Fold:
Amino acid sequence: MQSFFKPKSVAIIGASREEGKLGHIIFRNFFDNGFKKLYPINPNADEILGIRCYKSVLDVKDNIDLAVIVVPAKVVFQVLSDCVKKKIKSVIIISSGFSEVGEEGKKLEEQLKQLISKSKTRVIGPNCVGIYDAYSKVDTLFLSKVRCGRPKKGNISFISQSGAVGSTILDILYSKDIGISKFISYGNGIDVNESELIEFLGKDKTTKVIIAYIEGLRSNGRIFLEKVKKVKKPIIILKSGKSNKGTKAVSSHTGSLAGSSRIYSAAFRQFGIIEANNWEELLDYSIALSTQPSAKDNRIVIITDGGGFGVLATDEAEKLGLNIPEPSEKLKQRILQKMPSYISLHNPIDLTGDANAERYKIALTECLSSKEYDAALVIPLFQVPTLEEKVVEHIIEAKKFGKPIVVCSVGSDFSEKQNKKLIEAAIPVFPTPERAVKALRVLVRY
Amino acid sequence: MQSFFKPKSVAIIGASREEGKLGHIIFRNFFDNGFKKLYPINPNADEILGIRCYKSVLDVKDNIDLAVIVVPAKVVFQVLSDCVKKKIKSVIIISSGFSEVGEEGKKLEEQLKQLISKSKTRVIGPNCVGIYDAYSKVDTLFLSKVRCGRPKKGNISFISQSGAVGSTILDILYSKDIGISKFISYGNGIDVNESELIEFLGKDKTTKVIIAYIEGLRSNGRIFLEKVKKVKKPIIILKSGKSNKGTKAVSSHTGSLAGSSRIYSAAFRQFGIIEANNWEELLDYSIALSTQPSAKDNRIVIITDGGGFGVLATDEAEKLGLNIPEPSEKLKQRILQKMPSYISLHNPIDLTGDANAERYKIALTECLSSKEYDAALVIPLFQVPTLEEKVVEHIIEAKKFGKPIVVCSVGSDFSEKQNKKLIEAAIPVFPTPERAVKALRVLVRY
Structure:
């Protein structure tokens, strides 16, 4: 598997001189990213971007670690055969026109499967966008960077059955400045599938959290769950095709069976997989898990200067079964010694409409240093005039207590500026109290 | 009520020369917004920003339409008495320190109530941020514009019991460039409360949709529902204090009884109030209702080039009881005559990964001009290279069919640019398929 992500030599089969063509964009990615041993394969061209073209991978004398295939479906069998002969370890088939388009495509796909089963070549695809690795800069995405940004380095890895959903979420990660390690779109998954990818990412050093968009499993359900069980990292899955109509839509979209939602959900729970209900949850949970320690128990404290947001958070926390205990009398006394008597010392702790940063510091320090709370939800409303910007520093300082902290904060430029500072210091910030509480629940559960 | 929103003359009681003080910020708002008949009331100042100060409203010879009170709680009774004597029609009491802080404050509040009950003066507040009217530019918000933006003119009006939640949502509306008509934070609501405000907004010409954040009703529940029933505009409410702990938190936050969530939800449904579960839904629904016609029936068509997003939308639509019928054979034939045979002509209609703008035009035109569909959910994934920007124009053109259209689209700069064009043309755009479907359901139900 390593040669998919850290190839020393790469062949692009179907590399093209025409800008805008997929074979050009992919070749250009590798070229721009500084890959030196690069072999464009195109029987009708002499050179692309000054690099000599070959008619076939068999004409290349060097070893080839990775081949990327971008030729019409009908030609794929032939060029893949060449790859097998050349003993290329890893092949990504970008081309579409296989089982997803009907009977004829299914036959072509079967031929590929048989070819692979007799070889040592490993294949990702077909009908996929392939790989983006933020560290090694392998980038087989045929989407221009103008339309689809590439996220910076980070510790989340992401596998997606669907190329479109995958690249859209990748573009969102980029726009939100969230780093990733590896992105893999595996499409029809005729060889490498979600099971093997999750197993691989489980051992990957730069991957801390694994997220996945799955329509229907490409692998046997039992094998999938067994592999998942062995992975000691959080796995979050967005599963589509949960309804009757949705299942039918999955079938016409990817030709895979989606299966009953309830069976999936039950299995996910049993095997410690975190289920996301939409892509917002997929990212919310992955950000929380990749930045925060997990909570020892479920006793959370909510600290805010916006009473209403505190109440909304409380509603959600109770709904999700989190424990929101009041501070003990002793703890209340410790806090009250340093604060005005009119603050509301229940849980949520409402620092009231004239709160300043100092009150946040006191509440955070006393609550998180005590044995009464396992995690904190902080809701600073920056619209309020008395709250100084340095509250951000106090929240960041509170990381020293080693307990998870999540923040709910939202607004226009001023608030966004504060949120950015928090995010850069690895404190997750959510726009609604409900989303913050859901993320906290995941930290408590995991 | 009109003199609250279109006062010809305004007194600011507690106007201050010190920048940063609430009494200064509020005075400055009126000054900057061009109010000519402006009377700062402050016994210790001669003039503020060059405007002559008065010791009391009783010293002002002109009529005063609106007085804004920003003095310490203990002085409020005296200055309010002066307002009553002066026969000022409308008074906004910004000051806090009443029933929300305990027994002593409750007594002060009772005194105010008795005073008002014997007069013709109407009062908003106390313990509130008051009014922002995007048309008349009445702006009693003591929050600097740097921290809390003021939305542009629009047709949504927003009432909020909580000043902090209210101003945060106002700031969000500003950041999302969503226009409003009126914003009213009514705080402890000792005179004007949510019932009267909704009744008033029901008749307000620049208000098309009413949204509200409510913790506990200030008015009698039956009166509230009777008034609501008479309003022929959509009303969307975000109700907090739904859980046991949340109810308790409401009580310490505003001193009002929150009441059982189930009772509220049932009453809301019965009286045609749309319930939002978080502020995102509050805004999503208001944007949909303020820009789109309502749907005649519940048959929706989902059109996309990203199969996966189509499936997620389908899952949500089925869950919410929307009807997602396949096109009839006749309609399929009409569409197929103009499109490649490999597009997936079920519902969702998947225009596949090489979709262009023309395919969207054909699908939108054929489906929305037919009698088979009442509304459309369009999910263009702009990350896909073949989809030209002009798809935006085709979606906007489809408004001519007079049926609701909502869009799900998300991504970095390129996608955001397209989304902005749609939003400017009054097509609502949502980041997740699930949120788009929920908004569509509201259009179907209303």
User: Anything to note?
Assistant: The two ends of chain B are 28 Å apart (CA to CA). Chain B is about 40% helix and 15% strand. Chain B has a mean pLDDT of 94. Chain B touches chain A through 82 residues (CB under 8 Å).
